[in-house]
Amino acid sequence: MILFLKIALRNITRNKFRSSITIAAIAIGLASLVFIRAFVDGSHYQMIKNYTEFISGQIQIHDQGFQENMGLNKNIPNPQEIVSLIQMPQIKGKAFRVKEYVLASSAEHSLGVLLMGVDPQNEPKITELDKRVRYGKFLSNDKEIVVGKILAKSLNVGLQDKVVIMAQAFDGSLASEAYRVSGFLDTGVEELDKGLALITLKASQDLFVLNNRISEIALSTESIEHADRIAAMIKQKVTNSKLEVLSWKEISPALMQWVEFDVTFINIILFIVLLVVAAGILNTLLMGILERTHEFGIMISLGTTRSQIIQMVTLESIILGFIGVCLGFAFGIAGSLYFGAKGINLQAFSTALNNYYTGSIIYPRLSTGYLIQYGLIVLLTSVIVSIYPAWRAANLKPVEAIRHG
Amino acid sequence: MNLIEIQDLKKTYVEKTGVKTEALRGVSLSIEERAFIAIAGPSGSGKSTLLNLIGTLDTPDSGKILFEGKEITAIPPAFNALFRLHKIGFVFQSYNLFNQLTAQENVEYVMLLQGIPSKTRQERSRKLLNSVGLENTARKRPNQLSGGQQQRVAVLRAIAANPKIVLADEPTANLDSETASGLIDLMRSINQEYGITFIFSTHDKLVMNKADKIHLLKDGKIV
Questions:
Q1: What is the b/e burial string over B9-25, where b = at least 16 CB atoms within 10 angstroms of the residue's CB?
Q2: Residues in chain B whose beta carbon is closer than 8 A to a beta carbon of chain A?
Q3: If I label B18, which of A189, B32, B82, B216 is the partner at 20 to 30 A Cα–Cα?
């Protein structure tokens, strides 16, 4: 075996240029794959993190049907009881919210917006809405309102201007109240900056005559990755109440579909990379076998069996694949770590990226799971692709092969 | 008992253009164990074809070859390699050493295929190289050796695994007469020392005269 390994190694170094091209094809293919996957994972992570931190939270608890058809009649009348049911160390923050579509009017214009009543003390444990107030300040009393910056422009209101909110209250009466603008929300996400207004939880409960009722409990956990598992645990704890417990994937199926689409796209790239790798190795091995037909003829004459010839050719392919995979990992990981720390500035596409909650600087994120998976797939491809050239070499007719070259 | 019995061996090559060439036209021959035989004849007389058929590198159209009483022309192709590995050594006209391996590793190659342990392989190959004065070339690659040295290494590779017979197809064709004579002497000494049968093809009179017996082939027939 060692002599076969030696022969395989020396064959690789015999035509350094051709072997280098094959190794480079494998390395560049794998490095691109690792980097693209890290880039996409980084952008997904940011997208999900931003989405959950901008507005949704990682987990939401509602009255059954609220997600599908939002309204004041679908509410949680006893939020404190629910909170006491779901005391778990994994839950980092809890905040109560009221949500309703309302008519917001200034002296000049009226627009339909989503009004959220939030608890100014607890909401920062769930989202970064308070940090996204770029002009003015976040809510500090029940008479204040924070509006999206585009909404403010549409209503033509400035700081301390009055905005009147009108809607139907929970008891059927007309809810109407005026608030002073304390700040403008600037998330970079058009749908939020254009259609969201915030008042305090207490102010919203008073406005809609909800007493202690709320629309939802938003929760945050240690990490987004744990949200699904913790949502499932909460579901078990509140199984008897008529509540829906949703993780971010269920809160925004569109976001989840986008992530899944991207992963499919990556798999297509993986397939293309594998084709390039396969073509590179196949070319090298077939050329090598053509060049060494005479040598294989001698080997077969001396009693080398078919399986030993196959072993030898496959061994060459494994060595080429292994070197390529090591180099591919080195470049792919180094690139991903470098840009993971520095970030990739895509300011030119900031509007589009912000609308997808990604942010304009992407930080690639590496994950060991797919690194091993990709490395094995590329290595396996290099072995599979060597079977045909190896079979051809093993089945050469010795007399014809010896005459060759 | 004869080591090899060849009975009415025929082989015709058909080219892609349809042109037929009768390489062997009913060759019958007996070769004794420990013999040192020359197959002589002009180019195209069928010498290489005969050696290839004895070495199971090719199959005859008709006729039989018995090796130690067993018909080797009936061995399934999958087992041919094993037969060659254990019974036959080859020496080729253009040496055909493996350029990736050193002289010593070339000598070890067939022993490696036989599964002989590394230590034994190395000891035997060193001993053989020493016996022909090539001890200083053990670590050299074939392209660092002269033609005569390469052919001596090729002979050592052929006998290293103790075959019953060595088939040498024009082993001296690429060598000058002095080196050629030296190589035949080496083959003769191996034949006598180890009892290995040698069949070599040649059209060089000086070389063929060193054989115990000369079989002359002409137009595919023994004359």
A1: bbbeeeeeeeeeebbbe
A2: 52, 55, 57-58, 78, 81-82, 84-86, 88, 90, 92, 96, 98-101, 105, 108-110, 112-114, 118, 157
A3: B216
